[in-house]
């Protein structure tokens, strides 16, 4: 599994290109940036400085000093900007320092008062957008676990029967909450964390967190975005209908499936990410759905250590080999509910492919065949 530090060469290249003296980032405990840059889930705020091709980390005295390969790690309880400036001063008394645009304001002030000029860089964001083989394998492993989680939901729905216009499973009414718990239990067995991102929604009744009893004929959307042991995320959503009558939900599903197929045609290296996103939405709308009121605006974007990373499927970013993106096609209707298909796609040398390619049909019994 990927665990080593990443991004150092990209940071060094940015420093050289901008004739800067170094790079500074403040990695919050809950931000995957620190895990990417250090290869460790440190669980604490860290001052990260890259200077002269070397990595320096500063941690508070309230934690044990972690061992991080190829990095100098020391305790420093001074404000983050002062700690970073002290490291930089050993190499240059002044000059340009690169930093992500999210660097805290007080850190920026400390660096500027120490004689350094801050300049924003997207070097780390851009490096994270291109996954290597290890990272792709890690995400694909999470997608396989996600598929098994949704399979658990499909098996339950296929086994359910109708009593008094309600779906019943195990001698009790079947609800969105019961399915969500079973999906999360399966994810746990698979060794991934649901991170509170599993949702089961149906029809137009209740909100995201409401426990709603299920009825035949309504679309049921099961969506997961688990995190694997190496920190990488997955994303998978499928729509099921028990005793479908072939109405609105069938047409919406055909539209979403067609949009999913479009991504496999258009998401090639060199393609404009925004164009791919617009094609997904246009294909969905082509089946008679309103682009403004029914077709989702969120058609996806990069995924990795965070559920949302670069590149986003809008704007003018060019897709490159190694991009891994969440692809989402969804249609919502005030009276009929929602249909959604979400997958994770990798842009490869031979074209795009879905990771953990899962069935797409509305009939849950097809998942157990």
Automatic annotation (TrEMBL):
It comes from Haloferax marinisediminis. This is M24 family metallopeptidase. Residues 201-348 form the Peptidase M24 domain. InterPro entries: Creatinase/aminopeptidase-like, Pept_M24, Peptidase_M24B.
């Amino acid at each position: 599994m990927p665990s080593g530090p990443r991004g150092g060469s990209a940071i060094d290249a940015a420093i050289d290109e901008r004739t800067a003296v170094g790079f500074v980032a403040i990695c919050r405990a809950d931000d995957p940036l620190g895990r990417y840059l250090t290869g460790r889930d440190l669980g604490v705020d860290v001052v990260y400085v890259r200077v002269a091709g070397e990595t320096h980390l500063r941690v508070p005295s309230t934690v044990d000093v972690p061992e991080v390969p190829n990095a100098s790690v020391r305790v420093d309880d001074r404000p983050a900007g002062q700690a970073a400036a002290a490291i930089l001063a050993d190499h240059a008394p002044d000059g340009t320092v690169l930093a992500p645009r999210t660097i805290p304001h007080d850190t920026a002030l400390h660096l500027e008062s120490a004689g350094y000029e801050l300049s924003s860089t997207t070097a780390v964001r851009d490096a994270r957008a291109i996954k290597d083989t290890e990272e792709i394998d890690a995400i694909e492993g999470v997608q396989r676990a996600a598929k098994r989680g949704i399979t658990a939901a499909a098996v339950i729905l296929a086994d359910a029967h109708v009593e008094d216009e309600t779906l019943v499973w195990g001698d009790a009414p079947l609800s969105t909450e019961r399915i969500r718990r079973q999906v999360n239990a399966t994810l746990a067995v698979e060794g991934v964390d649901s991170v509170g991102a599993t949702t089961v929604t149906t029809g137009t009744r209740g909100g995201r967190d409401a426990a709603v009893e299920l009825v035949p004929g309504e679309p049921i959307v099961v969506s997961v975005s688990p995190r694997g042991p190496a920190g990488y995320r997955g994303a998978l959503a499928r729509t099921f209908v028990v005793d479908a009558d072939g109405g609105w939900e069938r047409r919406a599903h055909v539209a979403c499936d067609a949009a999913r197929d479009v991504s496999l045609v258009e998401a090639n290296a060199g393609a404009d990410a925004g164009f791919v996103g617009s094609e997904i939405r246009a294909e969905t709308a082509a089946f008679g759905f309103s682009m403004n009121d029914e077709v989702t605006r969120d058609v996806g974007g990069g995924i990795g250590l965070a559920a949302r990373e670069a590149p986003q499927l809008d704007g003018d970013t060019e897709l490159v080999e190694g991009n891994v993106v969440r692809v989402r096609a969804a249609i919502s209707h005030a009276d009929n509910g929602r249909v959604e298909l979400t997958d994770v796609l990798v842009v490869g040398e031979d074209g795009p492919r879905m990771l953990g390619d899962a069935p797409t049909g509305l009939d849950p019994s097809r998942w157990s065949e």
